[in-house]
Specification:
- The protein is built from eight helices and three strands, in the order αβαααββαααα.
- It is mainly alpha-helical.
- Helix 5 crosses helix 6.
- The longest helix has 20 residues.
- The N and C termini lie far apart (37 Å).
- The model has no long low-confidence stretch (mean pLDDT 83).
Length: 163
């Protein structure tokens, strides 16, 4: 992780912060965290999803739909889904992406952007650059996304027309 953070610093000019805490959660626990089901009131408005959590069938939902990792900026920790495998290029790149968010947060970038999409855009861009340098592959190949998906998750609302 230190080498990844050094790379991020060299390519962004951001200062290096302390390493984040790493926490490993089961798919069920990670899904609860991702939807904010442990919060009162539920911060992301997913009350219906959370109230039905006793009926969640993770086998049916599919592990691929549960995030492999998330960055918790409140706790300055990276939360990994159990089964995370640092020996794979895919999982290394996911960890790298979350480290970008950690460095962004510790450099005050969260306070300067208009929307979360800007944070994601930089994280995916750096993730792609790192993968190209280290393994000569693109982020599209490694995490199986396409440009349209990336455009959607990195978009900000139109400030002229509203949300």
């Amino acid at each position: 992780m230190t080498a990844m953070m050094l790379w991020i610093s060299q390519h962004t000019g951001y200062t290096i912060s302390e390493l984040p805490t790493i926490v490993e959660l089961s798919p069920f626990e990670l899904k609860r965290f991702a939807y904010g089901c442990d919060e009162t009131p539920i911060p992301n408005g997913n009350k219906d999803i959370c109230s039905a959590q006793e009926y969640w069938d993770l086998d049916e939902w599919g592990k691929e739909n549960i995030p492999l990792a998330l960055y918790d900026h409140y706790g300055q920790r990276i939360i990994l889904r159990k089964g995370f495998d640092i020996d794979t290029i895919h999982d290394q790149s996911v960890l790298f992406h979350e480290l970008v968010h950690h460095v962004q947060f510790n450099n005050g970038i969260y306070d300067t952007v208009e929307c979360k999409g800007e944070l994601e855009k930089l994280a995916y861009s750096l993730q792609d650059k790192w993968l190209q340098e280290k393994y000569n592959v693109s982020v599209y190949e490694v995490i199986d996304i396409n440009e349209l998906f990336l455009m959607i998750i990195t978009a900000c609302r139109d400030l002229i027309r509203g949300p």
